[in-house]
Amino acid sequence: MTDCQPLPDGSILVTVIGQLKTDDDPVNSFNHCFVLKPNTTGSFYISNEIFRLILH
């Protein structure tokens, strides 16, 4: 699931909630939040980022 929110300075706040599966390991949930900030060439870069792997 992904949610996006525009910010007043033209940036975009993005939140992604999902599940990660590698090899034979059990499925783990994750939450990834980041801010996409516009640059002078018309593209975006990640200015802030938080990744949380939810182990239970």
Automatic annotation (TrEMBL):
<dbReference type="GO" id="GO:0006913">
    <property type="term" value="P:nucleocytoplasmic transport"/>
</dbReference>
<keyword id="KW-0653">Protein transport</keyword>
<dbReference type="InterPro" id="IPR045875">
    <property type="entry name" value="NTF2"/>
</dbReference>
<comment type="function">
    <text>Has a role in nuclear-cytoplasmic transport of proteins and mRNAs.</text>
</comment>
<dbReference type="InterPro" id="IPR018222">
    <property type="entry name" value="Nuclear_transport_factor_2_euk"/>
</dbReference>
<dbReference type="InterPro" id="IPR032710">
    <property type="entry name" value="NTF2-like_dom_sf"/>
</dbReference>
<keyword id="KW-0813">Transport</keyword>
<dbReference type="GO" id="GO:0051028">
    <property type="term" value="P:mRNA transport"/>
</dbReference>
<feature type="domain" description="NTF2">
    <location>
        <begin position="1"/>
        <end position="53"/>
    </location>
</feature>
<dbReference type="GO" id="GO:0015031">
    <property type="term" value="P:protein transport"/>
</dbReference>
<protein>
    <recommendedName>
        <fullName>NTF2 domain-containing protein</fullName>
    </recommendedName>
</protein>
<keyword id="KW-0963">Cytoplasm</keyword>
<dbReference type="GO" id="GO:0005634">
    <property type="term" value="C:nucleus"/>
</dbReference>
<dbReference type="Pfam" id="PF02136">
    <property type="entry name" value="NTF2"/>
</dbReference>
<dbReference type="InterPro" id="IPR002075">
    <property type="entry name" value="NTF2_dom"/>
</dbReference>
<keyword id="KW-0539">Nucleus</keyword>
<dbReference type="GO" id="GO:0005737">
    <property type="term" value="C:cytoplasm"/>
</dbReference>
